[in-house]
Specification:
With 867 residues, the chain is mainly α. Helix content is 66%, strand content 4%. The strands form two sheets. Strands 2-3-4-1-5 form a five-stranded parallel sheet, with helices on both faces.
């Protein structure tokens, strides 16, 4: 019987009912030690009739062991691994040590957990109970949280119990357990048959903590003592220590062995006990005192605080001896390494080497943070300073791979004074630079890379210089770009091309970048980046699409958001606003799910441009205003485009002048925005305010040779000169169909020019075309302008009414992605693997999309025009 937990029980019943009805969910129960979290999980297991229950309990001693918790959770269902998609099955086989090795993406394990639970739920609802989540190893926590955030329609419920610190679960609902009131506390004492001499004092001293209530009542009844002034948890711990200290020495030693081992694994416990001259029978008095439970396969403490008391109450020398005995008895090499480390106080290369081997096993399973911690531990036990520096460097690299840039930078700082070896210091600089860039200091990262590249091995040096040049370009650091070019003697087309760009020597720089795009290996991510600098929208879209497909195919979740951002930018340029929104939404969701929220401002800047085109001022300012520095020039350019569309020309020019002068002025988006600046300046009657930016754009467009850029350049010349031939040249260049928004702007300006020239009939053709494009793009301010111009020509046709509703506009971004893939013939399971969802969630999205599209099946869906 639970007392004072009606609200929590209702929340759990709601979660279970939703799972039975086909709606997945998760809930985190928070509270201090002894507040009753485990009791609620036990109640949930009993209440989950007709539900498959999987359980895992975090173990403090295993908090640094990679995937220890996941093994507990999934061991009963490992027979289902064969049904998973290849990369996912390999990831979980590596975790469960059932053969196979994982890939290089640490999030594929979470995807595999999601798929496995979804498959299991096909047989009936599933409840996962995660107790003491604050002690889960980080790899397990990441995997389970990734799955929990992506469950939707799979009949899976996940219930976490955690203390206040040590387990962060952003975006999941939480419920904090309240302390018991006096009435419920009294009922609990009565149920347990406890009648202390002063029950009111016990209830007051326990402060409503159920564990404290029961322990204080028992202590008062037995010893007639008051609890004292310490905090509740400390008083409970002190009580357990007192009970343990009264036990015989062999019993205390056996409890210490169990506490140090942590898992309750009987074979290891018995092996260590035999070496120390005790045995299982010595736990009898601890069982009688209800401090431990002994079964045929495990030894467990009645409450984790009992184990804490048993361990903390032992002298240090005795702890070392116990860990040494456990190391000798351990059959699992990772457990052996953990105990050896706990038993070692001085540098010892033999122990350090064992820990390194454990770290490498963690790395192979993509538990990068666990591997980083093990390498750091090994470094502290490494006698020789250069080797210690190397292991700290490995720890830093792994911490960075796990997304912990601050930790990586700190590890590098520890390693740098330990070695004078220039190659080792170059490797350290590479890791530190990546951490600095993630923290937002691209200029510092660039200088580190270029400075230390001269000491690195040739292959590493080239990679460092290229990365340094890119970081410097992003940061507007002209000097470091030239230093990078000098470091490679001007022989690298990528770096040499960027060096040309920062000098505005586009005639030299752009052809070199085009050469790099044409010749670089298909796997080189720099190709997409360079295609964007060139303004080659078609190539950018093709390369980004291919890279997105590869990431989906290989389960490379961690890098996918950056690639989706590139794709979204190209989709916006092509007028595919709905597709861009879907790409950004997926990238943002993955970024949040994987703890990479620093990407969000850059993603916001992409869709801020769409909001600017559509004239959605509130949304544009909201998106651009979220950490505008991280969004860079793109956010400011979006705000300027918004103001241009709304006729705020002074503000447009002011904003774009700030981009040109700012530290991020060397980005392509700032170069191209010169066309917006010029249009605003011309309307203000002061074209000179845009003259430097225009000439820069002119040089870039002529050197790059992209048809759309030539068209925009011709439009700008027409604005400056009033020469109709430039408008005609612009329309010819636009004929290729790239950047429809820019084409419509050219047609609008040409129509306005024709009307002012009293050629009203001629003006109607470009204005109608502009209106049609603006309406299709939902670019309301621009459509209103085109409509007004048409009216001024005496046109009696349709005005700027909203474009006919596109059925695709009714879909959510994720529904749109699912529908497109389903229309191409992909099965639900194939779609799920690509979008990192479960098949049932895919079916759920299709079920919701069909009526919006007016179809009833995949066959009818395949006949729709979804272009």
């Amino acid at each position: 019987m639970l007392y004072g937990r009606a609200d929590e029980q209702t929340a759990i019943e709601t979660l279970l009912a939703a799972a039975r009805a086909g709606r997945s969910g998760a809930l985190v129960l928070r509270g201090e030690a002894g507040i009753g979290k485990s009791a609620l999980l036990g109640w949930a297991a009993e209440a989950a009739t007709g539900t498959r229950v999987l359980r895992v309990t975090g173990i403090e001693a295993e908090a640094d062991l990679a995937f220890g918790g996941l093994v507990q959770l999934l061991w009963p269902i490992q027979d289902r691994l064969a049904a998973l998609p290849g990369p996912q099955a390999e990831a979980l086989r590596a975790v469960l040590d059932a053969g196979g090795t994982s890939g290089q993406d640490r999030f594929v394990t979470g995807l595999a957990v999601l798929t496995l639970l979804a498959d299991l739920a096909e047989d009936g609802p599933v409840l996962c109970l995660i107790d003491d989540a604050q002690w889960l190893d980080r790899a397990t926590a990441d995997a389970v949280l990734f799955a929990a955030r992506r469950l939707a329609a799979e009949r899976v419920a996940i219930l976490f119990a955690a203390r206040d610190n040590g387990f962060a679960a952003p975006d999941l609902p939480e419920h904090r357990l309240a302390r018991l009131g006096a009435v419920d506390a009294g009922r609990l004492l009565a149920e347990r048959g406890l009648a202390p001499p002063s029950p009111a004092q016990v209830i007051e001293e326990s402060a409503g903590n159920p564990l404290a209530l029961l322990e204080f009542a028992a202590a008062q009844r037995e010893h007639h003592t008051a609890a004292g002034p310490l905090p509740v948890a400390d008083r409970v711990l002190a009580g357990f220590r007192a009970q343990i200290s009264a036990l015989p020495e062999p019993t205390r030693l056996m409890m210490l062995i169990a506490a140090a081992e942590g898992r309750g694994h009987l074979p290891t416990l018995l092996g260590a006990a035999e070496a120390l001259g005790v045995g299982l029978g010595d736990l009898e008095q601890a069982e009688t005192a209800r401090l431990v439970d002994v079964t045929g396969s495990a030894v467990t403490f009645r409450h984790p605080l009992v184990g804490t008391a048993a361990y903390q109450g032992a002298v240090l020398a005795r702890r070392f001896a116990v860990h040494q005995a456990l190391a000798e008895a351990a059959s699992d090499p990772d457990c052996r390494a953990r105990h050896l480390a706990a038993a070692t106080t001085a540098p010892d290369e033999r122990v350090a080497a064992e820990i390194v081997r454990s770290a490498e096993r963690a790395r192979a399973r993509t538990a990068f943070l666990a591997a980083a911690g093990l390498y750091r531990q090994a470094a502290h036990l490494t006698p020789e300073s250069v080797a210690r520096a190397g292991r700290l460097a490995e720890a830093a690299s792994l911490a960075l791979a796990a997304g912990h840039g601050e930790q990586a930078a700190e590890l590098v700082r520890q390693a740098e004074p330990l070695t004078e070896d220039v190659k080792a210091r170059a490797m350290l600089a590479q890791v530190r630079a990546a951490a600095e860039f993630e923290r937002g200091d691209g200029a510092a990262a660039a200088r580190l890379l270029v400075e230390h590249a001269r000491s690195a091995e040739p292959a590493r040096a080239v990679a460092m210089v290229r990365a340094g040049a890119r970081y410097a370009w992003f940061s507007g650091d002209r000097d470091t770009v030239h230093d990078a070019n000098d470091a490679l003697n001007g022989g690298d087309p990528l770096v040499q091309g960027i060096a040309g760009l920062v000098d505005d020597d586009f005639a030299t720089g752009l052809p070199l970048l085009a050469e790099f795009v044409a010749r670089a290996p298909a796997s080189d991510p720099g190709r997409t980046y360079c295609a964007m600098i060139l303004g080659d929208d078609t190539t950018t879209r093709e390369l980004a699409s291919a890279e997105v497909a590869r990431c989906r195919r290989e389960g490379l979740i961690g890098v996918l958001p950056d690639v989706l951002q590139d794709l979204a930018g190209a989709q916006v340029s092509a007028g595919l606003h709905r597709d861009a929104a879907a790409s950004v939404a997926e990238a943002a969701r993955i970024s949040r799910d994987t703890g990479s929220a620093q990407r969000l401002p850059r993603l916001n800047a992409v869709v801020a441009r769409v909001a600017a085109i559509e004239g959605d001022e509130r949304r544009c300012r909201e998106l651009a205003g979220r950490s505008p520095d991280a969004g860079g020039a793109a956010s400011t350019v979006a705000l300027a485009l918004l103001d241009l569309g709304l006729g705020r020309y002074e503000s447009t020019v002011d904003l774009l002048e700030s981009v040109r002068c700012g530290p991020l002025g060397y980005t392509t988006v700032a170069i191209v925005a010169a066309a917006d600046q010029l249009e605003a300046a011309v309307r203000l009657g002061d074209p000179s305010r845009a003259e430097p930016a225009f000439h820069r754009f002119e040089a870039w467009a002529e050197a790059g040779g992209q048809p759309w850029a030539k068209a925009v350049l011709a439009r700008c010349r027409a604005l400056l000169t009033g020469d109709e031939s430039h408008y005609l040249h612009a329309l010819d260049a636009h004929a290729g169909g790239e950047r429809p928004f820019e084409r419509a702007r050219t047609e609008l300006l040409y129509g306005e020019w024709l009307r002012r020239a009293k050629r009203r009939t001629d003006a109607r053709v470009p204005l109608r075309s502009a209106l049609e494009i603006f309406s299709r793009l939902h670019a309301k301010p621009w459509a209103d302008r085109a409509s007004s111009e048409l009216k001024a020509t005496g046109d009696t046709g349709p005005t700027a009414e909203p474009a006919a509703e596109n059925a695709l506009d009714r879909l959510t971004p994720q529904e749109l992605q699912v529908v497109r893939l389903a229309a191409d013939g992909e099965t639900s399971r194939e779609i799920a693997a690509q979008l990192f969802l479960s098949p049932r969630t895919v079916e759920h999205h299709l079920y919701r999309a069909y009526p919006k599209l007016g179809v009833r099946s995949r066959r009818e869906l395949s006949r729709l025009d979804l272009g």
